[in-house]
Each structure stands twice: as structure tokens, then as C-alpha cells.
Amino acid sequence: MSEATAPGAAPVRSTRRDAGTRAPRAEIIREPSDAAHFSVVEKPLSAFERLYNQGWLRKAMILAVLAIIWEAYARWLNNPLLFPTFTATVEALFRSIASGELPGKAWASIHVLLMGYVCGVVLASLLTAAAITSRIGTDFLETMTSMLNPLPAIALLPLALIWFGLGNGSLIFVLVHSVTWSVALNTHSGFLSVSNTLKMVGRNYGLRGGAYVAKILVPAAFPSILTGLKIGWAFAWRTLIAAELVFGVSSGSGGLGWFIYENKNLLDIANVFAGLFTVILIGLAVENLIFRVLERHTVQRWGMQS
């Protein structure tokens, strides 16, 4: 609509433009400018900041502080029979390593642990596969997990000694029990947490059976699976040391648990702490050299975790 004009007044041109036309715009030309006129956008990190950003160095500092506290408290207590110093423990550790006794005990424990851990992971995989393919499998896994997961594995050792005798079979039995339910529970929870959208994408691509599980469910649920593997390893490691304390008493031999028990009877407390220190070192090595590397090449690389 045109605007009305007063009588006798000159007509006013409308400043409105048609919808299809655009006003010409001047060409934008950017001249290069010297970077010295701008503020610093990025600056190099200091030496302290570069060192602080290294995770392994921060953890090493924590361990060093704990060692200093240990040494100071032991010297203040001044009772080697009750609490040896950190330096005495390290000396006992190196003596046991040089004699070959501690490496042999450690390998005996790790050998049994690996057999029980692998068997537990395989059994957990079978139970989880049955749970995701059938309702009866889900009901069975949930029922067995509710019943057996709260049951301490070490409580089954007396029965294991009766059923399997004084051998590695008893230790493997309790290890399988300690590993299976934690791994199965976390794996099944991870599968249930996979989004329906991702599941439908796999179905639309024609994935079925093992290919569907390997390419859709396992990668999506891998953070939960990895958590279950970590928890299963920790449970198995603790159960093994506790079982060897009893098993070593029964059979007169064993791994690190028997090494700790034997030196306790001899009142060699420094060697007892050396055995406990070895258990801690093996746990740190497995966590940082196996699980941490696996996590970095899978979960973090896939963008599932920062």
C-alpha cells in the first residue's frame, strides 16, 4: 500500500524495496595486519606446567610422598616388629628377589590367577550371551547374580577343598566365582544401556547374530565391559591372596599369600611387608600397563571418555 500524502504536498517516494531485489553491497577487502598489534592468543607452557600435565609424574609424586610418610612414621614408632621402615621393606624386597624366592612365589600366584580369571571371563561371556538372546537367559543371570554375587568367594574355599582337594583346582574354583558375577553383571548392564537408535541402525544394515553383537553391542557397551574386567581382576587378586593364606596352611606351599603367612610365623615382618608391597606393585602394573593402555586405545580413542 502506498502512503497517503497531504493536499498540496509533494509526493514522497517510497523507500521500500521489492522483496526480490537486494541493495548492492560493497566488496569486503581485508588488509593484512601485523600480529604485534594484537594480544597474545597462545603462549608456551612453563616447565612446571609441562611436568604437571604428565599423569605418570603426578602419580609418582603421590607415591613418593606416601613413602616419606611411611618412613617417618616407622622411625617415630621405632618398633621394627610392629611396623618396619620403608627402607627396611625395600631391602627385604630386593633380598627376596635376589634369592629367587619372591619371583617364584609371585609367578605361582599369577599363573593360578590367570587360569581362574580366563575361565571366569569365558563363563561370564556365555551367561551374558544367553541373557541378551532370550528372556529365560536374562532371568537366570539376574537370579544367579542376586544370589551369588554378594557371597564372598573365600567362604567357598572349605567346600572347594572338599570337592577338588589340595590343588590348584580349589583356588581356580573360588577365582571363577569371584570373577564371573562382576564381569557378567557389568557386561549385561552395558548391553542394556545401548541406545535403541544404535540398535536399529545395526538392524537396518542387516547385522544379525554374532556380527550384530561384535559390531554394535560390544563397542557401544565396552566402557561397562572394561569396568567389569577391572573389578573382576581386583576381586580375583584379593581372593587369591586370601585363599593362599588358608591353602598354604593346608598344603604347605603356595604363592604370595603363603610367602606372607610363612614370614609372619617367622616374625620377619619386613618380608611380610615386602610380600604385601609385591602385591601392590603387581596391581599397579596390571592397571597401568594393561587396562590403562587398553582404555586409551579403545574407549578414549572412540570418544566415549575424555
Describe this structure in words.
The model is unreliable at 1-6 (pLDDT under 50). The chain has a domain at 104-297: MetI-like (MetI-like fold), CATH 1.10.3720.10. Helix content is 70%, strand content 0%. It has 306 residues and is mainly alpha-helical. The chain starts with 46 loop residues before the first helix and ends in a 9-residue tail after the last helix. Residues 1-24 are annotated as: Disordered. One of its GO terms (biological process) is transmembrane transport.
Sheet having the most strands: none
The DSSP helix count reads 11
**CATH-assigned homologous superfamily of the domain at 104-297:** MetI-like
Portion of residues within helices:
55-70%
At the fold tier of CATH, the topology name of the domain at 104-297 is MetI-like fold
What structural category characterises the helix and strand content?
A: mainly alpha
What does the average pLDDT come to? 81
Coarse morphology: flat
Transmembrane segments: 60-77, 110-132, 153-176, 209-229, 241-261, 273-294
Family: Belongs to the binding-protein-dependent transport system permease family.
Membrane topology: Multi-pass membrane protein
Keywords: Cell membrane, Membrane, Transmembrane, Transmembrane helix, Transport
